Amino acid sequence: MNEKFMAIDVGLKRIGVAFGVGQVVLPQEPILRKNRNQAARDVSQRVAEYGVNVLVVGLPLGGSSEDEMRRRIEHFVSLLEFGGRIVYQDESLSSFEASEIYTDTKRDGKLDSMAAAVILKRYLEVV
């Protein structure tokens, strides 16, 4: 059975989403975040829709706000309805890498989902 992966890049306004099967990774429509409960419902729904086994969550490692960001992201993940495996992946510079790939400057969340795709590709390279 091929594992199905989803990566999320949790932001304050949007959550970038990417889906992967095997080594194929595709950015998806981002989730707009009105509040954390709505965002957690939307992520949980998307995970169920795609039949995801592994959720890869971007986590900023290093930097002065690492502990605070880890706490916020882990709290958000605790709100999800997901029975599969959850793994955390360093997301350092993923937004910068995504901006090198996706150069449109509109704030429509596509950059967030491209960053999620970068995070998922990094994870798949090491598993």
From TrEMBL:
Keyword line: Cytoplasm, Hydrolase, Nuclease, Ribosome biogenesis
Matching InterPro entries: RNaseH-like_sf, YqgF, YqgF/RNaseH-like_dom, YqgF/RNaseH-like_dom_sf
Subcellular location: Cytoplasm
Listed SMART domains: YqgFc
Domain of life: Bacteria
GO cellular component, one term: cytosol
Molecular-function GO term, any one: hydrolase activity, acting on ester bonds
All residue ranges annotated as the YqgF/RNase H-like domain in the record: 3-98
Gene Ontology biological-process annotations: rRNA 5'-end processing
Record EC number: 3.1.-.-
Keyword Nuclease: yes
Biological function: Could be a nuclease involved in processing of the 5'-end of pre-16S rRNA.
Record family assignment: Belongs to the YqgF HJR family.
Name of protein: Putative pre-16S rRNA nuclease
